[in-house]
Amino acid sequence: MNRRISLGLAALVLFLITSLCPAATQRWTADQANDWYKNQPWLVGSNFIPSTAINELEMWQADTFDLPTIDKELGWAERLGFNTVRVFLHNLPWKQDAVGFVDRIDQFLRVADTHHIKVMFVLFDACWDPYPKLGKQHEPRQGVHNSGWVQAPGREYLEDRSRWGELEAYAGGVVRRFKDDPRIVAWDVFNEPDNTNDSSYGKEEPKNKPAIVQQLLKEVFQWCRYADPSQPLTSGVWRGTWGDPQKLSPMERLQLGESDVISFHCYAKLPTMKEAVENLRRYNRPLFCTEYMARPMGSTFETILPFLKEQKVAAYNWGFVAGKTNTIYPWDSWQHSYETEPQVWFHDIFRADGTPYSPQEVQTIKAITGKGQT
User: Fold this and answer.
1) Is the separation of the CB atoms in 221 and 190 below 8 Å?
2) What's phi and psi for 167, nearest 5 deg?
3) pTM over 0.85, yes/no
């Protein structure tokens, strides 16, 4: 049989299988979530993309899927004592070739498993460029933080609800395929859904983006629950410390009300991190800090990680190996790019050759994770 026809039939079979949805399951109860979390180790790791990829598309497209680099860099994570990574997927590789995309996800999981690392996958993301395109990705802009990261889905999907069926096929298909996979620790269904990227692409965003995405997020939670995963679902709140429940935004109410485990972002100093954790404890569910660590802002491994360990809050710092994402540079590099490497890195732990930005910092991380001098 012609290979193209064979792959097309395989994709059709996969789509039909993933379209046979049972009734949606309910959000986990607090008891279910806490019982599940009791059986987890303290989850500590990083947001991860290989240094050779500028964005999710370059990471996952067949021509640029770099498994040797992924294997090497996850080995560095294992030696730090990291046991989990948070990784962004994208709907366009599914649209292009669902079977191939799922196979690459499985390859990634196999490599992560050899390093004793469990994965939290992010299905959708509202950050940075609203016009993602398949194919060759542009080169990084010198000195600009995340100069090539792309949203999932892009603006064209947000503004055309008739295309949401494609998003349902992607989200439901991926979750259903891996719904009982022990290598996956959780599903982060939408990263910073109401982020309007005011300091970068704000003028190119839909004027009513938060309202559109709020409706989409409701759908995404439902699509994922139809898949009936054994892993928890979450979407992280990311602004403030959420002290007054009466002042939560509609998006925050939705995120906190639908998540099986509560996730959040905090790039602030330790007192603010403590305040956020204390406030989110009111929901009586496991807590996941899925983004932290921005050295110039006072969010460092030395100050934040011991507290998160003490509280058994799952901890994922942003940035692992300095590479094409340029996240050693700060957010304000969109206003004035940097010609040379900053003296204090914003994110990331290692250079592309495996040399640590700060050997002392690496030893601190190892001491906290129990790796010591190994």
Assistant:
1) no
2) -70, -35
3) yes
Instruction: At 338, list the tokens.
Output: 């940097």
What value does the CA radius of gyration of the chain take, rounded to a whole number of Å? Answer: 20
Length of the chain: 374
C-alpha 136: how far from chain center: 22
The two three-digit tokens of residue 198, written as one number:
């005011």
Residue matched to tokens 């910092």: 361
Crossing angle (nearest 10°) for helices 3-19 and 164-177:
90
**CA–CA dist 314, 287 (Å, integer):** 6
pLDDT of 119-178, one tens digit each?
999 999 999 999 999 999 999 999 999 999 999 999 999 999 999 999 999 999 999 999
In angstroms, the CA 223 to CA 21 distance is 9
In terms of DSSP bridges, do strands 233-234 and 184-191 run parallel, antiparallel, or are they unpaired?
parallel
Tally Cβ neighbours within 10 Å of residue 72.
16
Helix (H) or strand (E) holding 273: helix 270-280
